[in-house]
Design brief:
The chain has four helices and 29 strands. By secondary structure, the chain is mainly beta. Strand 11 and strand 12 form a beta hairpin. The protein starts with a helix and ends with a strand.
């Protein structure tokens, strides 16, 4: 064992010693359909010498969660919404000049259109949310400079107008500057390919009925509280809420409650029936946590209480659905029960980590409220009534604290089938 350690250390030292030479070698542009293989390298010679090129750089990265899953959004585009974790393994700071999503089957051409915004609609495309920065969720959280030895998360929303153009596998071409390394001031690295899942998003029926349901915190362009938070659970950094939706009901003027809104019962959505979106088996229930007073996020909850009163259903084929923040003791089902599609499973409430009555709804790959990868889903039918014309930060402040009219762009009850609502959508379920 000791000799193996020495061999690895020798190789590492040798690599560092030749940094000045590595930048002259270009990473190959090849084709692949099977990311597990290594034949995406294109040979640079048919004779003697190094047959496959190498490129070295300070940054390493990998996809968080269990994969990259395409989904059709209410805008008609196909979205690849995912996260990469970046780590600078050198002691020198590295500045990211560009991050391009490329299609290896098309000679590493840039694929799709990638753009993400902060909670205040600031463009943070190609920037890393450093773990060392305070969690303000605005642009102050993001940086193109990754200090030595530090890590962070980069968010992506790669979109396609034509779903047939979505590659079977993608890679990332990252260009960085390392000015303190005189022999290698710049690095361009193309990663190994990552498979894009061929699994279709699960088709669901609505979790509630009626008009005026606002997707107040969902996927994909805006990095709101759901996408922003990656929880270190059970030794894994989980993107557990990337496709989750916080549903809040508003009237035609955009008001979410009557009176002063300080009681859960004053909110328009409080007590609404929550329905099973598909047949499944109950695998987790919490039912007796109290409602929280609206207007303030509780600060004394345990991890087990974050989702409040909830139901998790096993839908089969490795997919689970969670309904969170339900009314205390409103859940009629027990663990082990089989529920039918459309069956009532509880009432919308304000229990757990919440500052206003709403339904937290998500699909995931494990039966856990926090230790899971969030999965996309589509509804069999819905009507797109409009979109909120403000950023997520303004929306939260306006709905909860101001009780003023929301600026709404009407969509005229546009009928959509097999689509996922996007953040700031207002939809109707018949």
């Amino acid at each position: 064992m000791k000799s193996n350690v020495r061999v690895r250390s020798t190789i590492a030292l040798f690599v560092l010693a030749i940094l000045g030479l590595c930048h002259s070698l270009s990473f190959a542009q090849g084709k692949t359909e099977a990311p597990a293989k290594t034949d995406y390298f294109k040979p640079i010679t048919d004779g003697d010498g190094m047959r496959y090129p190498l490129e070295i750089g300070p940054l390493v990265w990998h996809v968080l969660g269990s994969g990259i899953y395409p989904v059709k959004g209410s805008d008609g585009l196909t979205h690849l919404a995912y996260e990469l974790m970046f780590t600078n393994v050198w002691r020198f700071p590295a500045t990211i000049n560009s991050v391009e999503v490329v299609d290896l089957a098309q000679d590493n051409k840039v694929t799709g259109s990638n753009r993400v915004l902060s909670i205040k609609n600031e463009d943070v495309t190609g920037q890393v949310k450093l773990f060392s920065l305070p969690n303000t969720q605005d642009k102050a959280n993001y940086s193109t400079e990754v200090p030595g030895g530090q890590s962070g998360v980069m968010f992506f929303d790669v979109t396609y107008a034509d779903p047939s153009q979505v590659p079977r596998a993608i890679a990332h071409r990252v260009t960085v500057s390392i000015p303190q390394v005189e022999r290698m001031p710049k690095s361009v690295v193309v990663s190994r390919p990552v498979k894009v899942s061929s699994m279709d998003a699960i088709v669901l029926s609505p979790p509630m009925k009626g008009d005026g349901w606002v997707d107040s915190n969902g996927c994909c362009l805006e990095i709101g509280p759901h996408r922003f938070v990656t929880n270190p659970m059970n030794g894994t950094l989980d993107p557990s809420e990337g496709f989750a939706i916080d549903w809040i009901k508003v009237d035609a003027q955009g008001h979410a409650y009557t009176g002063d809104g300080k009681k859960p019962e004053q909110w328009l959505d409080y007590g609404v029936d929550v329905l099973a979106v598909a047949p499944g088996t109950v695998v987790e229930v919490m039912r007796n946590l109290p409602n929280e007073p609206p207007g303030k996020t509780p600060d004394d909850l345990t991890i087990a209480q974050i989702a409040g009163n909830r139901v998790i259903l096993d839908l089969g084929y490795g997919r689970y659905v969670m309904y969170a923040h339900l009314v205390p003791n409103s859940i009629p089902v027990q663990v082990g029960d089989y529920v039918r599609q459309g069956e009532k499973i509880g009432l919308l409430g304000n229990s757990g980590n919440t500052d206003a009555p709403h339904l937290h709804f998500q699909v995931m790959d494990r039966p856990s409220s926090l230790d899971a990868t969030s999965l996309p889903f589509v509804f069999d039918s819905m009507q797109l009534q409009g979109r909120i014309k403000m950023n997520l930060d303004e929306l939260d402040n306006t709905i909860i604290h101001k009780a003023s009219d929301l600026p709404i762009q009407s969509m005229g009850d546009k009928a959509l089938t097999r689509s996922m609502p996007l953040s700031l959508d207002i939809v109707s379920f018949k």
